[in-house]
Amino acid sequence: MFEGKTEGAILPRLRDPGLIRSAVVIGAGSMGSGIAAHLANAGVPVLLLDRPGDGEARNAPAQAGITRQLAGGGFMHARLASLVEVGNVEDDLPRAAEADWIVEAVFEDPAIKRDLYARIDAVRAPGSIVSSNTSTIPLSVLLEGMSDRFAADFVVTHFFNPPRVMELLEIVTTPRTDPAVARRIGRIGREVLGKTVVECRDTPGFIANRIGNFWMSVAVLEARRLGLSVEEADAIMSRPFGIPRTGIFGLMDFVGLNLVPLVWGSFMRILPEDDLHRQFDITVDPFLAYMLEKGLTGRFGPGGFYRRKDASGQRVDEVIDFTSAEYRLRAEPALASLEAGDLRTLMQGDDRGSAYAWSVFSALIRYAAQIAPAIAPDVAAIDTTMRLGYNWQLGPFTLADRIGADWIVARLESEGHDIPPLLRSAAKAGGFYPAPDRLLSTDGATTGNNAAAVAMSAAALRRARGPVSGNAAASVLDMGHGVALLEIHTKMNAVDLDVVEVIEALPGLVARNFQALVIGSDNARAFSAGARLDVFVDHVAGQDWPGLDAFVARGQRAWSGLKYAPFPVVAAVGGLALGGGAELMLHADRVLAHAEARIGLPERKVGIIPGWGGVTQLLLRAQEELGDPVAAGMRAFNVIFAAEVAASADLARQAGFLRADDRVVLQQAGLLQAARTLALAMTAGYRAAAPAQLLAAGAALKESARSMVQARLSGGGGPTDTDAGIAEVLAHVLAGGDAAAGTSLAETDFYRLERDAIQELARRPTSQARLVHMLKNNRSLAN
What we know:
The chain is α/β, with parallel strands linked by helices. It has three domains: about 25-200, Rossmann fold (3-Layer(aba) Sandwich), CATH 3.40.50; about 210-450, N-(1-d-carboxylethyl)-l-norvaline Dehydrogenase, domain 2 (Orthogonal Bundle); about 460-770, 2-enoyl-CoA Hydratase, Chain A, domain 1. It is about 45% helix and about 15% strand. The strands form six sheets. It has an eight-stranded mixed beta sheet. Strands 14-15-16-17-19-21-24 form a seven-stranded mixed beta sheet, sandwiched between helices. A four-stranded mixed beta sheet has the order 18-20-22-23. Helix 17 (about 405-415) packs across helix 18 and helix 20 (about 495-515) runs parallel beside helix 22 (about 545-565). The longest helix is centred in the middle third of the chain and has 24 residues, at about 350-375. Keywords: Fatty acid metabolism, Lipid degradation, Lipid metabolism, NAD, Oxidoreductase.
């Protein structure tokens, strides 16, 4: 629905243009091509190079990387691929002289990399940054034999796969690195690429993989030692620890068992002799060796610890049995320890699940505390990398605080283990995070916790000044510099009547006390997931049609009050903006959207159409852009009838939810501050918008919509007769009702048509069934 090359679909990125103008990525494998795609997502032109292809197709390997990213969702919009030019290292390496940043993502062999660096250094521009995406090789090893000039501009930038999705970026420098280069690459990571940047010390595996690979080794080997099955180990090592449900064996299958000799083998070659990881050397495990001998490499092979298809290609749900070494049906774990209410209680149980949980965690916390001083400045850096790099809910030190650092130390001492100094310091201090604003540095000292103080947040504004006004559902906060913030703080920022009440009072409140308004919150998951259905359904169930019309009209007036207020309104949209939330966004003067914002009007799936001005505002945007009323009406019709959610800000722009002068940022954390800056810039000479006029498209639009729906009905597998009925009502609204084509109608005329449509659809039993089903089951009914 939202794919395709529509002119003007790509929104400008809000960033400092002096940070980076262009980049070169060398290596078009999954990581290199993914990095190139994400640079393009940030609006940075990229040259992607790989080895030369055969014959005349010399750029084919690099082009294959682009094709892979287009198929796998590496680009936020297909048109962004046009920012990536392909080439090969033999013909095109001299063009690295044009780049501000050159990223190397080739095979993990220091000799191969250093040979490439020498060639890069011969052609690059003075002051250009060169970085490696290595995940295991120390920076000092990569720099052996390289000049001081090159070393000053060289860093490790370790992305995680896939680069578009994974938020973490580890940056490694050495004393030879120019501090200005370190600062600049950190800003590029945060402000341009939208990453959470963690500065790591130059040690094997840096932070995430040093600890993560150790945890994986321990979790695999201890499961087998203690006699747990694949399912039991994954059940213990997932939900109780706040780890994804893949657990350990599902993760190993995803990573690929064939990488164990390469990745874990590299660790075994370079780790110090006394490193605890050597006691859990997965590379010499005989069962793993057996699986690799049989070609059982994991999810992308014929099977791994789990198998989804048997030898004949039939779908199965099987796991490997550690005793028979054969596949069997997956079984539901029946460990009593899984019923424990918290992790500490689980570890205190007496079954093998409890023994496993303690065995893995005790090794993890000992290792993390032992190596922390060598790899990171404080415990927050390590917790952040494990949360973002491995998708854990909590890092190891936060997890230890939940369990109790003093309890952990006492149990380890009773078992005869040496206690790392950092762990002992935590037990004495009252935890690794002894107070909300305090944490431990890795030398054991207590220091300030400023990890969350980098960007503006609603929580910080609330603590500093308190709310200006509000209720349990929404608050008005003072952002400073004369800008107010409307913060919705219901579950998923859903809109209820309390939210409407606060918004109704905003025009007067802001006009008296501020000069601009931002709508946004700290909730990265949702700008607003839509209006709550319970009040709507209550009116329908009681056949209170006047009450229903008053309810819809109230929302229209509240949202319109913001649109025509005498001050600029900026919607800071991150996460989901659905239904009534999307309609609220559509009434703002400007939108500043996180690049991964997901915007849509799914009302057709609950049997109705948007009623708080969503149909009208989407049509208005389309008429402003396209001019022709029928073409504009059909674009709005297709988007609303599809009821799909645009999967990025650029796709939302293509659908018409965002205007050409709206802006995108890739850094979620900086969204509110950037929105305040934008709102302030709009205050000079601001005048309230004049009431909008729209042109009726008339019968031509209704006929076009009817033909489209009928064609889809006859094709089968698409909309139902219920959907066709909704489509007819929707087309009537978009056409301007019964007005003749070309008639100029006020915005309020279309709002009236929206309300009439809601009344008509809400009386239909099929729509009522959809509404009730969604309210009760939180999923749509395709009746």
